[in-house]
C-alpha cells in the first residue's frame, strides 16, 4: 500500500510558482499601487494568485484576502490573473493594507476599477502585470 502511494504521488507534475511585477495607476483618483504577485497555474490562460506584496497609496499591503471575501457583500474577488490584454477578470483580486484597508482591484465593463471595502467602485486607470525577469 505504501509503495502504491509513493508511485502515485511521484507521477504528479510539479507546479512552479511564478512571480509577477504589477502596478496600478489612476491619476484621476490620485491612486497608485505596485508590488509583486505570486501565482500558480490554475488552467489554460489563468493563474491563481496565492500571495501579494507591495503598497497601495503608500500603505503597505499586508496580505491577500480569501476568494469571494471582499469587498461588497457577497464578495466578488476571484484572485485570478488572466493572460491577454485585460489581466484581471470581473472578480479581480483583493488584499488588505495597513490601516485596516481592504481593496478589490478588478476589470469590469471594459475598464479597470477598484473598490475599498463597502465603498463605491472607482473606474479608470491602468493595470499591468509582467512576469518578474521579463523584458
Provide structural commentary.
By secondary structure, the protein is mainly beta. It has one domain (18-131). 7% of the residues lie in helices and 53% in strands. Strands 1, 2, 3, 4, 5, 6, 7, 8, 9 and 10 form a ten-stranded antiparallel β-sheet that branches. A hairpin with a 2-residue loop joins strand 2 (31-43) and strand 3 (46-56). 29% of the residues are buried. The model is unreliable at 1-14 (pLDDT under 50).
Topology overview:
Layout: H1 2-10, E1 17-26, E2 31-43, E3 46-56, E4 59-64, E5 80-82, E6 93-97, E7 101-108, E8 111-116, E9 121-123, E10 126-131
Q: Gyration radius, to the nearest Å? A: 17 Å
| Stretches with pLDDT under 50, minimum 5 residues | 1-14
Biggest sheet character: 10 strands, antiparallel
* H-E string: HEEEEEEEEEE
How many domain modules? 1
Q: What proportion strand?
A: over 45%
Number of helices: 1
User: Tally of extended strands?
Assistant: 10
Mean pLDDT, to the nearest integer, reads: 88
Straight-line distance between termini: 49 Å
Structural class: mainly beta
Briefly summarize what is shown.
With 135 residues, this protein is mainly beta. It contains one helix and ten strands, in the order H-E-E-E-E-E-E-E-E-E-E. The chain is globular, with a radius of gyration of 17 Å.
Question: What are its keywords?
Answer:
mainly beta; ten-stranded antiparallel β-sheet; 53% strand
